[in-house]
Amino acid sequence: MPATEIRFDHLMVAVADLEAAGERYRDLGFEVRTGGRHANLGTENLIIPFRRERYIELIAVRDVASTRRNLEQGDRFVDLLERYDELPMIFVLRVSDLPGVRARLDAADIATLEPHRLSRTGPDGRTVSFGLLSPASGPWRRGFPSFIDWGSAPQPAATAGEHPNGAVELSALDVLVDDVETHVRYYRSLGLAVSALAGQDLATVDLDGLRLRLVGPAAQPGGPDTLSAHGPGVTAVRLAGRADTTVPAQPRRPFVLNLVAEAAG
Question: Domains of the chain by range and CATH?
């Protein structure tokens, strides 16, 4: 992958009960794979893999003290999970040059945290490590992505899942943001194609064929209340597949999951 290429990697959905969430998604017709435990962070995950090496990560806390102590903004992560059964926390973009991405953002006066390495150990005892770059405001429900560099580690969705419900690809995300113009400047600084809709408090970003829809509070029903409740972030997930299914938002699961019969990219 060229150093300047940016791809969508995964959507992280935090869940209060990992086993129950895994069963729920299996009942919805998804293939759910075992992930692993993150060293020293007190978290573990499951993987729902799709084409084009995109996936949904279900992540839960297994050791609250470790998560609060060692995870970046761990207190915020735990506190949000005490209020919601499922909540999209952040989406992650894949690159092969974290320092280069950070330099681009720095040149646009957009601050980030220092790149750092994390690791995950699977049930087979194998440990993989990867690099991560996060926004200076923190990763959880801030509206901005993090960036991951898998290096030589196996990417979790290198082999797409076979989903009984017909889902094949993550195709779009709606992201509620507090200020669309700030986010437009952010993505343009990375060299991504952005279309801003004048006067509509909306913009779209093309992420290697995945449509990222930036929605300001004026364009989102109940937008100001949603921002106040749990901050900016993903409010709708669209999957391309062979059938139409909608899982509506609920008070403790405040995002929409849409499976739409359409041709994958």
Answer: 7-149 (3.10.180.10), 169-261 (3.10.180.10)
